[in-house]
Amino acid sequence: MQHEQRSGRYVPPLSDTEDIVTLLAPRLAHFAGVARTEHVTRAAQEMNVPQSTLSRAMVRLERDLGVDLFARIGRTVSLTPAGRTFLGSVERALGEIERAAESVRADADPESGKVAFGFLHTMGTETVPALIRAFRADYPRIRFSLVQNYGEAMLERLRAGELDLCLTSPVPDEPGLVARRLDEQRLRLVVPDDHRLAARKRIRLEEAAEETFVTLEPGYGMRRIFDDLCAEAGFRPRVAFEGEETETLRGFVAAGLGVALLPPPTVPRPGVVELAVTGQRAVREIGVAWLDGHPDTPPVAAFKKFLLSRRGKLLPEHI
């Protein structure tokens, strides 16, 4: 390997970290191959790279780093102390790259890959387990990374690329996202079982205008639906308590602390009565969303197709 003679003029190495990483990355495997064989010709043969290309790459690598990595003795080379230090870090870096490549390939495998899937808290008890069980009848080895959260928090993670798909409500309509409506839940006015309205089967929401409500915190999709429905019914609700989970709100209602407009429970809750809301379309739409323009891995594409096939039958029949 021809070595470029260094003059007395010092050539400073690149100082910008991003620039030097971009510059050095393609050469690291070549450096490791030469270091392993201590012979440029043999390394070039093993890596199927022209010897001249490999020689020039090592010279440029030393020049860019500003240090000698090899001592040249005839046709052979040996690592300098700086070269041995550099080799240790290079081998660890290449190992990390190899593991990362194996990981992303495994996640994209059509038979055993991974889907990052987000869904609402209220979907976690029954709906999502039933969905995944049905999907895995055909894809038994596909893995899931599951995230439960409220709608906007999940959409933030979707935008950040941390989720492949999410079930959310309301169904988003915004640039950068694709969403499809899958199903809907009829909302109910939930009152304590000793409440003056408890003997009713159905109610118009405006009849509850003077009631004290317990509801989800601002930012939750269900809170937005609640506020919109109350405005449509002609009143601004008096809110006593705000929470983060619908079944907790049912507990507050059972304790006599207010009434609530909620989706139906997975199982009946003692201490409350649930009234059908009439006079307006009091529903919560559930949809699936994903990033527009992002290619799907085979497992994500398969699960997306499955979810879209469940339109109108996403939720358990008793809901």
Main features:
13 strands; 4-stranded mixed β-sheet; disordered N terminus; elongated; 319 residues; single chain; 5-stranded mixed β-sheet; alpha/beta
Q: Report mean pLDDT, rounded to a whole number.
A: 88
Structural class: alpha/beta
**Termini distance?**
75 Å
- Helix-strand pattern, N to C? HHHHEEHEHEHEEEEEHEHEEEH
Range of strand content: 15-25%
- Can you summarize the main beta sheet? 5 strands, mixed
Number of helices: 10
Unreliable spans are 1-18
Give the strand tally: 13
Determine Rg (CA atoms, Å): 31 Å
Question: Per the principal axes of the C-alpha atoms, what is the gross shape?
Answer: elongated
Percent of residues in helices comes to 25-40%
Could you give the order of strands across the largest sheet?
4-3-5-13-6
Account of the protein in words:
The protein has 319 residues and is α/β, with parallel strands linked by helices. Helix content is 38%, strand content 23%. It contains ten helices and 13 strands. A five-stranded mixed sheet has the order 4-3-5-13-6, with helices on both faces. Helix 2 (28-37) packs across helix 3 (40-47). The model is unreliable at 1-18 (pLDDT under 50).
SSE order and pairing:
Layout: H1 17-24, H2 28-37, H3 40-47, H4 51-65, E1 70-73, E2 76-79, H5 81-107, E3 114-119, H6 127-135, E4 143-148, H7 151-159, E5 165-168, E6 177-186, E7 188-192, E8 202-204, E9 212-216, H8 221-233, E10 238-243, H9 246-254, E11 260-262, E12 272-278, E13 283-291, H10 298-309
Parallel strand pairs: 3-4, 3-5, 8-12, 9-10
Antiparallel strand pairs: 1-2, 5-13, 6-13, 7-11, 7-12
